[in-house]
């Protein structure tokens, strides 16, 4: 058996159980330390982007949106899937989502934080941007759940308290809010928008 931390987890076989509009379920047989193989269920998913859009007063734009799997509205960041095709960059997708969900554009963009959402079973990953120097756009046409969106401007300090009190529970929103507060407190220089994104998902898009 190899030393801990040195084993190469080779996929010996793979099959697709399901392919839908936004995800696929793949079953892999993966070689474990000691030589046996184990079955791993993998949900392939589009990557996604989200935006911490902060105005000159230090408030961030958040949307209250109905989420059917949990049956209630959540306070979230403007966000969406990387489903615009191979010609759309993650930054362009973030700009599109900010316009579609919050009727906003921004002149200054930086990478705030990268996330792998639940790496125990899915390759879904998400890049959160910080957008500043905001300006208003004409109201977008919205359908389905997005037609019910409510835009709320929340001071960053209040958003931090709402994360810690359990009022904001969306994982992307919690990560983005706390990362923005941590960057402010530490003075950390944020990455440029073309910074490498190691875990950007590609498997599901390659099926299209």
Automatic annotation (TrEMBL):
It holds the Pfam family NUDIX. The keyword Metal-binding does not apply. GO terms for molecular function: hydrolase activity. GO terms for biological process: nucleoside phosphate metabolic process; ribose phosphate metabolic process. PROSITE patterns: NUDIX. One of its GO terms (cellular component) is cytosol. It comes from Gordonia sihwensis NBRC 108236. Residues 44-176 form the Nudix hydrolase domain. Keywords: Hydrolase. The lineage of its organism: Bacteria, Bacillati, Actinomycetota, Actinomycetes, Mycobacteriales. InterPro entries: NUDIX_hydrolase-like_dom_sf, NUDIX_hydrolase_dom. This is ADP-ribose pyrophosphatase.
């Amino acid at each position: 058996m190899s030393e801990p931390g040195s084993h190469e987890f080779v996929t010996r076989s793979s099959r697709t159980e399901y392919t839908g509009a936004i995800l696929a379920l793949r079953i892999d047989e993966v070689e474990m330390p000691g030589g046996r193989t184990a079955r791993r269920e993998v949900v392939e998913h589009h990557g996604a982007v989200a935006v911490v859009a902060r105005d000159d007063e230090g408030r961030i734009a958040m949307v209250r949106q109905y989420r059917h799997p949990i049956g209630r509205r959540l306070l979230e960041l403007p966000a969406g899937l990387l489903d615009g095709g191979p010609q759309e960059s993650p930054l362009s997708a973030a700009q599109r989502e900010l316009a579609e969900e919050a009727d906003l554009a921004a002149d200054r963009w930086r990478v705030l934080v990268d996330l792998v959402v639940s790496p125990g079973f899915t390759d879904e990953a998400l890049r959160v941007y910080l957008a500043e120097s905001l300006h208003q756009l004409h109201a977008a046409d919205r359908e389905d759940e997005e037609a019910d969106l409510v835009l709320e401007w929340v001071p960053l300090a209040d958003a931090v308290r709402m994360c810690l009190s359990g009022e904001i529970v969306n994982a992307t929103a919690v990560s983005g809010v706390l990362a923005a507060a941590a960057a402010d407190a530490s003075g950390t220089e944020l990455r440029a928008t073309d910074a490498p994104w190691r875990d950007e998902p590609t498997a599901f898009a390659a099926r299209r």
